[in-house]
Amino acid sequence: MFDEKKLIVLEDLFQNKDFQENFFDYAKERKLKDDEDVVIVVCHEDKLAVSRIKNKFSMIEEFSLLSGPALTSWAKKEFKKNEAEINSEAFKKLIAYVGNDLWRLSGEINKLVNYRGGEEIKEEDIDLLVKANLDANIFKTLDALAQRDKKTALWLIHEHLERGDNEMYLLSMLAYQLRNLIRLKDLIERGEPYYSLAQKSGLHPYVVKKSSEQLRNFTLDDLKKIYRRLAEIDFKIKVGLTDGPTAIDLLVAEL
Fold first, then answer.
1. What is the domain partition of the chain in residue ranges?
2. DNA polymerase III delta subunit-like C-terminal domain location, by residue (predicted)?
């Protein structure tokens, strides 16, 4: 009576050239471009993804994750919908802790609103009720490394590993924050004023604030050295020369 509907989900399509070519050949052979009963979802981080596939399918619609002003605006509307007030520092911390997971962000907002019972939500409420993403806890790990507090840095790292967090993801987040620090340190050393760092770097103001505090204990050479070691560790883990926990322990011990 009805044609069967099909859903195809592709992740990291553009990171494997052979798979990409094979899939496009398959799509052409099966005439997926003209098949209205097939929906293809491409999960990607490639800014050129749409342009790469626009001629492959009949209709394309892009759903981007909210970020920057769009994410801020969405969250503010959620508070307004709940008739709740939150001070600016608490709001910045909430966004930094939760990120652009809108489902979770909505739940955290509801939890905060119910907890405060009509009173203004403050920064201490975020610390009490909202569990930071791994991304946010990276700040604490790098804080410990900046202070040369190896014991705390190792404890934080192993806390994540024991909880089941993937060591490659942990390394990727450390690398991401180190890139942020290098970017900011370079801007500062070139004389860029503090008030323009967020705009020039493309980072959230809260991330700039937290990162700037860490930069006091790192030179640009320090940051580049750690970043290079992370890249070496990433390579060794991927080719099987070492395991993740051991490599991370050695990295911290060397600092």
1. 6-53, 68-129, 134-254
2. 136-254
- Whole-prediction pTM: 0.50
CATH 3.20.20.150 is held by the domain 68-129:
no
96-101 contacts, C-beta under 8 A, 24 or more apart: 96/136, 96/204, 96/206, 96/207, 96/210, 97/126, 97/130, 97/131, 97/132, 97/133, 97/136, 98/130, 98/133, 99/133, 99/135, 100/65, 100/66, 100/67, 100/71
What whole-number distance in Å separates Cα of residue 73 and Cα of residue 15? 33
36-57 pLDDT per residue, tens: 777 777 776 565 566 666 666 6
**CATH architecture, domain 134-254:** Up-down Bundle (1.20)
Adjacent-strand bridge partners of 67: none
Q: Please count the CA atoms within 13 angstroms of the CA of 113 that sit on its side-chain side.
A: 16
Give Cβ neighbours of residue 114 (< 8 Å, ≥ 6 apart): none
